[in-house]
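U., I forgot to send this yesterday:
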Amino acid sequence: MGPRIGEGQPQMPDRNTKATMSTEDMCESKVNLEPQESCEDAQPQGLFRSIKFFVLCHSILQLAQLMISGYLKSSISTVEKRFGLSSQTSGLLAAFNEVGNVSLILFVSYFGSRVHRPRMIGCGAILVALAGLLMALPHFISEPYRYDRSSPEDRSRNFDSSLCLPTTVVPASALSNDSCSSHTEAKHLTLVAIMFTAQTLLGIGSVPIQPFGISYIDDFAHHCNSPLYLGILFAVTTMGPGVAYGLGSLMLRLYVDIDRMPEGGITLTSKDPRWVGAWWLGFLISAGLVVLAASPYFFFPRKMPRERHELHFRRKVLAGSALIVRKGEEHSSQQEPLKKEAGLAQIAQDLTVVQFIKVFPSVLLRTLRHPIFLLVVLSQVCTSSMVAGMATFLPKFLERQFSITASFANLLLGCVSIPMAIVGIVVGSVLVKRLHLSPVQCSALCLLGSLLCLLLSLPLFFIGCSTHHVVGITRDLGAQPGTSLFPGCAEPCSCQSDDFNPVCDTSAYVEYTTPCHAGCTGRVVQEALGKSQVFYTNCSCVAGDGMVPAGSCDSACGHLLLPFILLISLGAAVASITHIPSFMLILRGVKKEDKTLAVGMQFMLLRVLAWMPSPVIHGSAIDTTCVHWALSCGRRAVCRYYDHDLLRTRFIGLQFFFKSGSLVCFALALAILRQQNKEVRATATVKSSELQQQL
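Result:
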């Protein structure tokens, strides 16, 4: 069974866990009992010798760092279109920052007290900023984006390249062949390699920021103020992904080549499926913020005077002199455990790298043999896999399923889903604190939250849109027979099969991949409300006046978007309630000397088992639902059309699978904890009866 939670004598919370284990109660017992500080510590402190200023700087830095980390996820579909990537490749790119992180996080967490932590944080932040600049570099070294398949030197060919003409324009096919040269392919691979390198560098630079910052605050803040500072830190940094999606929403409204617009401008709108937003601009803005936030860290000292006083609004008046005396007696009796704890910390600090490598396997096995630790970590792996897949591909899913722009999809996530998840985390922490939940009650709360999250995901299987009729593509999906409303209408046209310039017959709700396939021979631009709208005329495959607007057909079930987002957001809030209770189960379930390493192993396992593979798994599942691929030099590039029903079933099905795994793990943990409590009560009853017999 392993060690039981709650068995034996009460343990003093160590320095790394006092932020979550009833710290206010501990603070009450130590008011006016702090040892007198030296005169040197009592001297006025400068700005860079104030722990409050460090908390402010670190909150801003982590917010900016998470902006860079989350910004790629907000623009993942745009990067796919710009560089011709599949969802599997883009998912691997999004997960690649965990490679550098995983390789160093455990050692940084273990040997963090030996280095100048503020300077290490500053150096890591500089690497993060450099990674952001590298992510934007492919935009500047690549050619301008060609949405019309015409050469940059001859933009006028855009007008006629997709129309129904009796003969094929020879230069267009020649251009297509020239684009498959070895030089072009090598340049494409170079651009992709730069982005993968930037993601690896981002993971390495992020390693020292959070562990060193938390330990630095905890070391030099007043023991009663440390939880408050850490709470402020976490509250500010959790807004980072939301700010990243908001930034993505703003940047993707701008055209990708806003810095090198062609003469005469462009005729695309953000609703056009060929539209590519200024994905690179958000990386430059985030990198600049990181550089500004990293500057103060090179002026903080390696050690600053420990904060002397508790904050005024945290102070509480003790209830009488008798209570003070009793607390003083308890304080004297606790000196031995504190000395033992300090000794263990000193031993951990004195270990060399070789000694740590020798000791680590035994500590790892001892921790993994603990059933509660293992089950809770597995449940967190399932939850993190769900969150990683949702954060990476939910904007793209909304774009395809409900025919909305990438900007609007990011706005929904940044303003609705992520704030709801933050509310869930706060509610979970308040429940644990106010109700003084025991381990059994924490596991029951986690089980209830997982069950509600699972139930909220069931209606999502039925909220969505089926694929509309695309001529020549969706025939196998049960669409109308025949290639168009007028069979053979486009036979006189010489249409390129790999061209993509969609138009929509709004009267019949039929989409054509190009105006040529619709038999259109003319093109007009109409100005309305300061915006230009492109129409193609004389379309032989279209009934009526033979005029169709450029762009894909709008969604036929756009009214279902709001219920879908509300269910997703409620599920995120309910799932987030389990975050703090599950973390408490880990802190209370392992031995005191293993807590620091157990938390490090927890985050390492989450990265290895969830955040690294989950985006790749979700991306691969999305690729299997594609019904029409764009080809680049004979290879699959980006998917043009998906089977919407299959996409919804597989994407939501993966989410349902991970939620079910989390539910099962919490159910097993609750069963084990109840069994352990029964054994403890039975043992206590036997000892009590034996004692009565002896008396």
